[in-house]
User: Fold this.
Amino acid sequence: MAENERGLTSRLGPLEIDWPRSLGYFGGIGLAVAFEVIEPPLALVIAAVPFVRMLNLPGASWPVRFASQLADGATKPIGGDSEQTIRLTTRDVATAARQARSRTRRRATRVHEALAQD
Assistant:
């Protein structure tokens, strides 16, 4: 958490919530539905974006990461590339990232050794 965000974000279990951005994001969706700018099914899809993006973890299974990245790509036209308002921040996430990097390095080493033998 950056120093200038202190007091604006908080942790709720494994989630870090950026309150001003979250309230603006979800409040904007609610207002758009209330004023009938968008239909409720579309609002649900838009509201689900931050939660689907959280599934893209290094330690997650391939199908889960694929679905998350597919949904992330599909949301680009509606602002899916903006900064996340809700993020997972647990030691498990950091551990999974380290393990994934370690596995990648081991695979690269084995491939390099196999190519060197040929």
About this structure: Residues 39 and 92 are 37 Å apart (CA to CA). The two ends are 49 Å apart (CA to CA). Helices lie at 19-34, 40-53, 62-74, 91-117.
